[in-house]
Design brief:
248 residues; mainly alpha; 9 helices; globular
Length: 248
Amino acid sequence: MRWSLLNTLNCASGPIRQLTPATRIVVTSLVFIASVVTQPANLLGFVCLVVTALGWLIVCGPPFWLVRSALVLALAMLLPVFLLSPLIEAKGHFLQALTVPWTLFARGIVGMLVSITALSALTLSELQEGLRTLKVPALVVTLVVQIIHQAELLIDETRRISAALSLRRGPESTMSAWRILGAMPQVWLPRVIHRAERLAMTMELRGYGIDVPYQSTRKTHWRDVVSIALAGCWALIVLFLQNRIGRS
């Protein structure tokens, strides 16, 4: 399956889909906070981090390919953090120098996993609705929607140009590779700008960016209140445990 940013949206099947879009965003924020305040350098912090990640995957229910893609992306971005280990001054054993990179690595993986899989529980319209319900400024909501649309546009256009160049290129050589690389900005940039302008006009015609009073038609259910309370309690428990370990 070819990865697409829009394919990431609305592909989860977990119980979190029963909540309102605003509640899903709030719960995601609380779970993300719980994942970044842990100290995975100690055993209890590592257990809390693993429980947070596994619990979120069960509640969210993303497809396997999305979890795999998120982990691969997180590993590619965060593994170079360990290159900083020789630059960290640690008194005593070398393992103490790995504490900071390991903390950044573990928190980063779980944080990215929570953020990426959270998108799978929302459609683009639900994301917009949830942000507006939470009283996020209309300009910020419009920018978020535009970023998602433009990112997908860039990915799709890059794939089209790469496929065309791979079919039309001549004999492979170092010189031809450099010529193709030099021609990429001349071919890629005008097409991307043209498609971005068309997309912007389409979104303007459909009412994006018009600041009108918004009132959600969804009613808050008891499930929403319980979900926010549980996520908030878990974040407070993790924070309390980490503070207690830090003082001891």
